[in-house]
Specification:
Metallo-beta-lactamase, Chain A, elongated, five-stranded mixed beta sheet, alpha/beta, seven-stranded mixed beta sheet, single chain, binds zinc ion
Length: 280
């Protein structure tokens, strides 16, 4: 497995290279992975944050390959994934493809797709085809892209290596997230190229582990809610996330809220004045 070295293109399968962004952090792990797909002409999948140095690195990689960058695809419009498209589009003649932007105040408001992609849409990349798979959950507009000939899935923030992703309501939905994970079990995926971290080599195991992990967390939420009726998410974060360091509790509270909303939507908790009670 090639190491994650910022800026240096790493071949991950024939015709696909990863270029790690220069934005390591609490929410981004080693940084955002951008992928260059193609040999004769290139497509950037998730150009990363609006960082001219990262755009320089993507262009240098393209130059090394002797192939022009023709288009940009984005999995979703969080600010560590799509804003780099604007930087590249100022320099190059590009087609921008991806989802519409949900209005939740957490998105790249500069993103404008030349072509809006939705579930099942196919895009020709050089001599290959990717298919968009709608995977709402982390955020409502999330897409994964499946390279149909090799079974490589670009997962954006739907599944990342080494960590679980934040589900931030209202655009993020735990119910949708679990449904999107289950849906991918029906696809022919041989490897996953995530938006953060290393390749995921055993997709089915990763999907099953993540589904089980989220359901386990849900059980903890329900237990905590039984012990502390009339709670909001903040009241439950300590008992539910005892395994998670304190500095992550503010972020964990968002996913906890998403769990509570799911329980409410499924009739397993009730909500009055924004406070929750367990119903089972
Ligand atoms: Zn994201």
């Amino acid at each position: 497995m090639s190491a994650l070295i910022p800026g240096k293109p790493a071949l991950i399968e024939p015709g696909v290279r990863r270029v790690l962004g220069l934005n390591p952090g609490m929410m981004t792990g080693p940084g955002t992975n951008s992928y260059l797909v193609g040999d004769n002409e290139l497509t950037v999948i998730d150009p990363g944050p609006a960082d001219p140095r990262h755009a320089d690195n993507l262009q240098a990689a393209a130059e090394q390959l002797g192939a022009p960058i023709r288009r940009v695809l984005v999995t979703h419009t969080h600010r560590d994934h799509s804003p780099g498209a604007s930087v590249l589009a100022e320099r190059l003649d590009l087609e921008l493809l991806g989802p519409e932007v949900p209005d939740d105040g957490l998105q790249d408001e500069h993103w404008r797709a030349d072509r809006i992609l939705g579930d099942g849409d196919r895009v020709r990349l050089d001599d290959r085809t990717v298919r968009a798979i709608a995977t709402p959950g982390h955020v409502g507009n999330h897409l994964c892209f499946l390279l149909e000939d090799s079974g490589l899935l670009f997962t954006g923030d739907h599944l990342i290596h080494g960590s679980t992703v934040v589900i931030a309501p209202p655009s993020g939905s735990m119910k949708d997230y679990l449904a999107s994970l289950r849906r991918l079990l029906d696809e022919d995926i041989h490897c996953m190229a995530p938006g953060h971290g290393e390749l995921i080599q055993e997709p089915e195991a990763a999907l099953n582990w993540t589904i089980e992990h989220r359901l386990e967390r849900e059980r903890k939420v329900l237990d905590a809610l039984r012990q502390r009726p009339d709670s909001v998410a903040q009241d439950l974060v300590e008992p539910v996330y005892v395994d998670v360091p304190d500095y992550l509790h503010a972020v964990a509270t968002l996913s906890l809220e998403a769990h509570l909303i799911k329980l409410y939507e499924e009739g397993r908790a009730e909500r009055r004045d924004g406070r929750y009670q367990a119903l089972e």
